Amino acid sequence: MEIKKRENIPENRQVRLTVAVDRGTWQDALMHCYNGIKALCPVEGEPTREKIEAVYGSGFLYQEAVNETYPQALVDAIGQEDISIAGTPTLTVEDIGPDGFTFTALIDLYPEVKLGQYKGLSAVYPQAELSEEDTQAALEEYARAHMTEEHPDRAAMGDEVVLDFEGFVDGVAFEGGKGESYPLLLGSGYFIPGFEEQVAGARTGEERDIHVTFPTAYTPELAGKDATFHIKVHEITRRSMPTLDDAFARAQGFEELSHLRRSVMEQAVAQKQSEAAEQFANDLIGQVLAGMEVELPDAMVENQLDGLIQELRGHLEGQGVQLEQYLESSGTSMTFPVWLDAQQVSMENLSETAEEPDTDTTNESQTTEAPQDVPDGQDTEGGASGNSVWEVIGTVVRENPILVWSIVAVIAALVIVGAVRRYHKVKRDERDDNGAE
Predict the structure, then answer these.
(1) What is the pLDDT of residues 107-166, one digit of tens each?
(2) In this model, does residue 26 exceed pLDDT 80?
(3) Is 316 exposed, middle or buried (0-12, 13-18, 19+ CB in 10 A)?
(4) Do 380 and 217 contact (CB within 8 A), yes or no?
(5) Is there a contact between 217 and 383 (Cβ–Cβ < 8 Å)?
(6) Residue 38 phi/psi, 5° resolution?
């Protein structure tokens, strides 16, 4: 590998490297690719490399060989030039032949952060106090995590029912309408209206038909149609809050209720202390961020948005819904809104930028709430027509501007860590002094 040229593009915070891959490396890659595909290329006689290139062209192996060699060449070039990259470089093959190839890599540089005031900052360290209400809430949360279970013979609203189901429209099974050993909490509203109410009353082992009508705001293939679901109930579980007494405490491994209460309080205090430390650090970081300016490369913005979309996709797929199905059923689109096309962000006006999207009347998309999470073949009622997934993500960003700040927060956190550690040391010293007295 040899770097032929480096071109700095300061106005875009980019660097363009021209990199050459030497003949030896190139020929080794070509031979490796040849050995991998020679059995798949029919030629007359022995499938030598010369015969394959004569039949399929001298450049037949080039694409695979480029894919094999450029990653290491790029990594070596970036390391040699000591470049901090902000995203995946854009690569272009400029010249290629038997003696090697040359490519250019357009690289977005890591953003330059202009720090404002970061010394002499102060913030109030919240007191980690536990009120009686906090204690009661912690006990109730503990009880909810240790609810008693029974398995009645007949299901009622509020029970969890494990069942098989298969849906039919006009006697024909439809895609996405089948599930096995599916845990359904009756009354959750997770299935389409009328389904869960008709499961109530079923016995363990019973099979029955459920008659429902799909909402009009649904996938076009099923919207407004009558359907029949055949179900079979496998298990019914009824959960209830336990009575907080000595017997319950002993069942959890404590001698008596007072010991359980003390343990729960200690955990609640630890949680309060953790929240106080986090708030203290966030307050300091917020002050640093308020005075920072950073120019974000397009690659970093796009990577962040891609991550949000993939997170949305994963969340939907976890519920049995494809992103494309969600887009179709809720009338959303992947249109990129004008207000996200910002390349330079000042930390002083970042929140304002996020809270006041471009209101150009030519953009008719409206911000919407994401519809209720439902598995494939279930109700998506609540989706609004003509909305954009980018607007949904925009809503998340506006409600949680720290998502945007997170791109540069690590830098600020490094500045703050020392102050936080010093504060905790002072607090520990004070406690030790009080204990000694």
Answers:
(1) 988 887 788 888 888 889 988 888 888 888 999 999 999 999 999 999 999 999 999 999
(2) yes
(3) buried
(4) yes
(5) yes
(6) -60, -30
In this structure, the dihedral spanned by the alpha carbons of residues 196, 202, 206 and 208, taken in order and rounded to 10 degrees, is: -50
Q: What count of other Cβ atoms lies within 10 Å of the Cβ of residue 426?
A: 11
> What is the Rg, in whole angstroms, of the alpha carbon atoms belonging to the chain?
31
Rounded to two decimals, the pTM is 0.45
Length of the chain: 437
pLDDT, tens only, 56-71: 776 777 888 888 888 8
Q: What letter would DSSP give residue 388?
A: B
Place of tokens 């796009």: 302
> What is the model's pLDDT at position 421?
43
| Res. 422: pLDDT tops 60 | no
Q: How far is Cα 219 from Cα 228, in angstroms, rounded to an integer?
A: 17
Alpha helices (runs of H) in 18-148, residue ranges in sequence order: 23-37, 49-56, 62-81, 132-145
Structure tokens at 69: 């060699």
Show the CA angle centred on residue 325, arms to residues 323 and 328, nearest 5°: 110
**Cβ contacts of residue 375 below 8 Å, gap of 6+?**
176, 179, 190, 319, 320, 321
User: 146: which 2 tokens?
Assistant: 């240790």
